[in-house]
């Protein structure tokens, strides 16, 4: 049986306030974020507004600002903040032994 979690690399290759992307099935991408306080979060790499690449946004606390029209998206809930409405799928992620692990099911589902 396949393990439930997919190892996508060491945390220390993802600088604080940085993000990287991971292609998943269906031509989609997951964006993985590293916050200033060391948190790791993963979202579908598509802004709920017009699908802007969130991985290229600016990370601040536990939000990312979309590079296209500056919507702020919560890294925790995937929801747009403030007056904006929309939600992007949150991908289960954890850190174990300095490695970033994401939910295999979410990756294989192509983040529906
Ligand atoms: S596409 Fe992200 S704010 Fe418009």
Outline:
By secondary structure, the protein is mainly beta.
Topology:
Elements: E1 5-10, E2 19-24, E3 28-34, E4 40-44, E5 58-60, E6 63-65, E7 72-74, E8 93-96, E9 99-103, H1 104-108
Antiparallel strand pairs: 1-9, 2-3, 3-4, 5-6, 6-7, 8-9
The site of FE2/S2 (inorganic) cluster has 8 residues, from loops.
Description:
The protein is mainly beta. The protein has a single domain (5-108), classed as 3-layer Sandwich (Rieske Iron-sulfur Protein), CATH 2.102.10. 4% of the residues lie in helices and 38% in strands. The strands form three sheets. A three-stranded antiparallel β-sheet has the order 1-9-8. A hairpin with a 6-residue loop joins strand 6 (63-65) and strand 7. The two termini are 23 Å apart. 31% of the residues are buried. The site of FE2/S2 (inorganic) cluster (FES) has 8 residues, from loops.
């Amino acid at each position: 049986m396949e393990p439930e979690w997919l190892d996508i690399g060491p945390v220390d290759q993802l600088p604080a306030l940085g993000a990287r992307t991971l292609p998943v099935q269906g031509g989609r991408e997951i964006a993985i974020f590293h916050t200033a306080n060391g948190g790791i979060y993963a979202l579908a790499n598509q802004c709920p507004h017009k699908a802007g690449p969130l991985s290229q946004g600016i990370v601040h606390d536990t939000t990312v600002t979309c590079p296209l029209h500056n919507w702020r998206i919560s890294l925790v809930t995937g929801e747009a903040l403030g007056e904006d409405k929309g939600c992007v799928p949150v991908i289960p992620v954890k850190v174990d032994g300095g490695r970033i692990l994401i939910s295999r099911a979410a990756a294989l589902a192509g983040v529906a």
